[in-house]
Amino acid sequence: KDGQMGAFMFFSSDTVDVLAEDHKKLRKELSILKDSKFTNSEKERAFERLVPNFISHSKREERVIYSYMKYANDDLTSLAFKGEEEHMICNQLVDNMTTEELSPDEWKKKKKVLGELLEHHLNDEENKVFPLLKKNLDESTDIELCRKYKLQSSEKMIPPPEVSKWGSPTQTME
Predict the structure, then answer these.
(1) Which of 4, 11, 123, 13 is nearest to 68 (CA)?
(2) Could you tell me the CA-to-CA distances from 101 to 39, 44, 63, 134 in Å, in that order?
(3) CA neighbor of 107 nearest in space, from 52, 2, 33
(4) How far is CA 68 from CA 15, 20, 62, 132, 136, in A?
(5) Out of 8-12, 31-35, 71-75, 105-109, least confident range
(6) Are 137 and 40 in contact (CB under 8 A)?
(7) Which of 2, 109, 152, 166 has the fewest CB within 10 Å, making it most exposed?
(8) Cα distance between residue 5 and residue 20, in whole Å
(9) Is pLDDT of 83 > 90?
(10) What is the pLDDT of residue 75?
(11) Longest dimension (CA), the chain
(12) What does pTM read for this prediction?
């Protein structure tokens, strides 16, 4: 942090660091889904890890980070609403992928769209939201948001569903 009492514009932020760590985990699973060197079974497991991690991350982000952003300033407010909409679209797609019987081709196409949407969302946050958070957070707010976000993460994540609930991902995760 910059060390000035009451000054804004931190060079580091505990809140941004914990969000970035979540993003890193999501990106790891996305990279497996996209990489042709991984087997269908490995991609299936990556998807099964991605879904609960994304759901957990997005819920905590909305409850804690976006709630703060909506009252911080116009730029952060706009980005919070945009982020919520992106979460909603991704959640709808995940719901469709996990509840509908999909052909292998449909699965592959939806998996690609989900990957593109999530990557776009993560890039937006890392390139737009994170710098603005660092600029607008004072030290006590940063500590409090990070604490609340971590407390939310202590909630148990949804265990990966059984393969049978996913249609036939082994055949469709190409």
Answers:
(1) 13
(2) 21, 16, 32, 44
(3) 33
(4) 12, 17, 9, 12, 11
(5) 8-12
(6) no
(7) 2
(8) 26
(9) yes
(10) 93
(11) 59
(12) 0.80
Cα separation, 174 vs 170, in Å, equals 8
Is residue 36 within 8 A of residue 173, CB to CB? The reply is no
pLDDT, greater one: 110 or 173:
110
Buried b (16+ CB within 10 A) or exposed e, 109-121: ebbeebbeebeeb
The pLDDT-based confidence of 40 (bands split at 50, 70, 90) is confident
Q: In the 8-state DSSP scheme, what is residue 163?
A: G
Sequence-ordered alpha helix ranges (H) in the chain = 14-34, 40-60, 67-72, 74-99, 104-124, 130-136, 139-153, 169-172
Please tell me the distance from the alpha carbon of residue 55 to that of residue 42, in angstroms, as a whole number.
20
